[in-house]
Amino acid sequence: MKKILKNTVVIFLISQVSGCAYFSSSQISLKDTNYESTLRFPASDKQSCSQLLLTFYEKQDEDRMISRIKATKEDPHKFFRSFPPLYYKILEDLSLGNVFGDLVKHKGVIGGDVHIENFSVRTFKGEHRLLINDFDDLSEGPMIFDVIRLLTSIRLSGQKVDESFVAKFMTRYKEGLKGKKENYSDVTMRFFKESKKSDSRISTSKINVKKKKFVKKREPSFDMTSEEIESWKELIVPNGKLVDQYKYVKESGGSGGLDRFELLIENNGQLIWVEAKEWEVPGINAGLKTKPPTYVKRLEHVLKYDQPDLPSFTIKYNDKIFFIREINESHVGLTIDGLSKKEKKEMFLDEAYALGFFHRQFGSTDSYIDELKKASDEAISEHVEKIKDEVKDYVK
Q1: Are 131 and 330 in contact (CB under 8 A)?
Q2: DSSP β-ladder status, 107-110 and 139-142
Q3: How many whole angstroms separate alpha carbon 153 and alpha carbon 173?
């Protein structure tokens, strides 16, 4: 028996999951959170890691999936980041709907793929704010799933997520939920300063402004076909003239294996770099086999939260929906590179506040905050440790 909520005792079972090489076929259901979902795996005695993950990414071929797995093999945190649907499978294996009781009933807009490297200082209506910076997996669901995911990411990065740290994390998260004044650490403010000192939206190290050409490309990059170029020229017309372009397929990360088109457009004499990224099913919906919000609804959520100089939009190309957003030099992503242990911890707590701010934008309720007060910091810490162990088992 495990005490999860103060004054509440529930029983949960931890399923035994084998390493990433092979998985036993199984059927898993999640019914206590109103999802009524069932995950069905092929009826073979064993299935490969790539075959399992392909059940979450139906549009990707196995070669790309194998490449994605190889790119993350030696790094559990990178593996965790790269396959968000698997996180939701683990939550279901651990019966999170029972574990966190009424907290799971509080649903709202969720980031879906929240992790320590998924925050950046961005312009919001002309102001600089610390925001979630990736909306590939934005969806709707229990907000506590985002909280546990960020804590698991922190743990996989090497930070100790004990009862004391969870207490501080939850305090900062609730400050964001309540809309309390920002109070960021010195280390996070360094990212704000870096963002504010940029005097250009265009990266001059990657783009030759005079020649209107990309000079440093994201790798692996590929030349676009003449047919692709002509199609995107026509599709992008309302937003400007296409002057240069290339294709990029990221090998790892939550959007690994998806097609991206890097487009340099000119509008009224100004160069703007936009990225067209294939928008797949969000991680929570792919992992739990539930119906995602419509593309229109997902974009509506993004535009309510993220309001840069050039608002994001979507385009349909080759029967796929592509999410279009500006790549702005002044948007600076948070990174733990070069930080001391103390600085990392401070930055993680600032991210907790930013996550609370994100959830607040979509109507977090007082009842959710009251329910959070009942949560046991010790139980959250123990559960994060179990998820961390499950992730490492998959990587083996």
Answers
A1: no
A2: antiparallel
A3: 15
How much is the pLDDT for 309? 80
User: Would strands 241-249 and 259-267 be described as parallel, antiparallel, or unpaired?
Assistant: antiparallel
As a whole number, mean pLDDT of residues 368-393 equals 93
Q: Is residue 375 part of a domain?
A: no
Distance CA 228, CA 133 (A): 27
Instruction: Domain count for the chain, please give it.
Output: 1
- Which range of residues forms the domain containing residue 218? 196-326
Contacts of 130 (CB under 8 A, 6+ apart): 119, 120, 121, 182, 184, 188, 191, 192, 334, 350, 351, 353, 354, 357
The CA dihedral of 137, 139, 143, 144, to the nearest 10 degrees, is -40
Pull the structure tokens for residue 364: 């977090």
Q: Write down the pTM of the prediction.
A: 0.86
- Sole residue written with tokens 């997902």: 298
Computed over every residue of the chain, the mean pLDDT equals 85
- Flag whether 230 is in a domain: yes
Report in angstroms the alpha-carbon separations of 253 from 77, 205, 279, 302: 10, 24, 14, 20
- Mean per-residue pLDDT, 242-265: 82
CA–CA distance, 116 with 296 (Å, rounded to integer): 28
User: In sequence order, what DSSP letters do the residues of 230-278 get, joined into one string?
Assistant: HHHHHHHGGG-EEEEEEEEE-SSSTTTT-EEEEEEEEETTEEEEEEEEE
Query: What gap in Å lies between CA 85 and CA 90, rounded to an integer?
Result: 9
**Rounded CA separation 282/290 (Å):** 10
CA–centroid distance for 93 within its chain: 21
* Residue 19 domain flag: no
- CB 326, CB 308: distance < 8 Å: yes
